[in-house]
Amino acid sequence: MLQITDEMDQLFEKYRKKISLTQTQFVRSIMSEINWNARLIGIKGARGVGKTTLLLQYIKLHLSANIPSALYVSLDDIWFSEHKLIDLVDSFVKKGGKYLFLDEVHKYAQWSVEVKNIYDDYPELHLVFTGSSLLEIINARADLSRRAVVYTMQGLSFREYLNMLLGTDFKIVSLSGLLENHNALSQEVLSGIKPLQYFSGYLQSGYYPFFKEEIDLYHTRIEEVVNMILEVELPLLRGVDISYINKLKQLLLVVSESAPFVPNISKLSQRIGINRQTMLSYLYYLNEAHLLNSVYKEVHGTSLLQKPDKIFLENTNLMYTFKGDQTDMGNARETFFVNQVRYKCELTISEQSDFWVAGKYTFEIGGKNKNKRQIKQLADAFIAADDIEYGFENKIPLWLFGFLY
After folding, report:
1. Do the beta carbons of residue 292 and residue 322 sit within 8 Å?
2. What percent of the chain shows pLDDT beyond 70?
3. Are 273 and 134 part of one and the same domain?
């Protein structure tokens, strides 16, 4: 037991060092949306969106008076190659530990079983865990769905990007508030900055918080994120055959070349070289992994074998990583809109226009010269137009939809 305790001291030392180096000038908005009083909290998200930073910032901002009673560990730490999580928890709680933050839980075998047992056996402990967006909260051996409050975290909104880059403090707006008051909201933003000055930068390299670290290597890091998801997480968490990984990379390139991609599953299966059922399954997994955004005509059309009606890359930075200056601007606009709006609102394909949002609103996406001909006969119909600072009537600046989260 002494050996475990001594080695545990190394975990505490690493934790203290990480806390001391954590900056808190900019904090993601999801921080205030999480019910931190819950005993078991899960935070899912793609690699690189800032889950680790969120945990460390929360500890520094809210538990600074109780640092010894809190502990952050990453479950890919070498310590766990010889010790069980339950050993750590037992010793930690006996020493007065109350708040345990577990990062990268998907790297630890049987994590869900141990977390379930910890929740049941240590009622005095608050436990927060993060993991891949592919993390399964419901499984046969340890159903955490009744125990855990689970949140999904995605990359920076355009609003958060501005706040992080410029030190501004722009607030979240609701979709209804945006549609009703878009001119006043535009005026508020424009009184401080020129949003179009920064919008193209966000589309190209502003979605992942690490954009502030060596921007020249930004797209190389995105490639590393994509490769880690495809080569490690999908085989580990979804059982994808490693021999298919290059075919999945090919699939992502096909989607990035389209404007947007309307899939013909039979032709796509032939082109990639896998059967139809496997193709549909892999499209579903790539959505779960936050590499694709599949959009359907029906709200509930997201089953494993449901054919998507349109497919986008999950965010515009992926487009620029794959295609660079050849990125199609029309596709980028729609990709941005889907990414920013869908995080908080239901979004499907519209029969009359581009998108149907929140079961009520029709949207057409385009450039500044986009006219209203296609939607003029429709109620609650709007144009989200690029390259404009202010809207007029039902024509709204596209960039403003980046303020929804």
Report:
1. no
2. 97
3. no
- DSSP character for 308? P
Q: Domain tally for the chain? A: 2
As a whole number of Å, the CA-based R_g of the chain is: 22
User: What's the domain range around 215?
Assistant: 160-403
| 317, 226: one domain | yes
3: confidence class by pLDDT, cuts 50, 70, 90? very low
Cβ neighbours, 10 Å, residue 169: 9
239, 312: one domain: yes
Could you write out the DSSP letters of every residue in 80-146?
GGTS-HHHHHHHHHHTT--EEEEE-GGGSTTHHHHHHHHHHH-TT-EEEEEE-TT--S--SS---TT
Considering the domain architecture, whether residues 211 and 294 belong to the same structural domain is answered as: yes
Torsion angle defined by CA atoms of residues 315, 262, 255 and 28, in that order, rounded to the nearest 10 degrees: 10
What residues form DSSP beta bridges with 293? 312
Identify whether the C-beta of residue 20 lies closer than 8 Å to the C-beta of residue 44: no
Q: Write down the mean pLDDT value for the chain.
A: 93
Question: Which of 87, 121, 153 is where one domain is finished?
Answer: 153
For residue 105, give both structure tokens: 């839980």
Rounded to 5, what percent of the chain is helix, strand, coil?
50, 15, 35
| 138 plus 221 within the same structural domain | no
Q: Is the pLDDT of residue 304 over 80?
A: no
Q: pLDDT at position 300, please?
A: 66
For residue 330, the one-letter residue type is: G
Claim to verify: residue 94 and residue 33 sit in the same structural domain: yes
Q: What is the mean pLDDT of residues 307-330?
A: 94
Terminal-to-terminal C-alpha distance of the chain: 47
Q: How many CB atoms lie within 10 A of CB 325?
A: 6
Q: How far apart are CA 189 and CA 400, in angstroms?
A: 9
Lowest-pLDDT choice from 129-143, 238-252, 317-331, 375-389: 129-143
Q: Are residues 321 and 180 in the same domain?
A: yes
- The pTM (predicted TM-score) of the whole model is 0.93
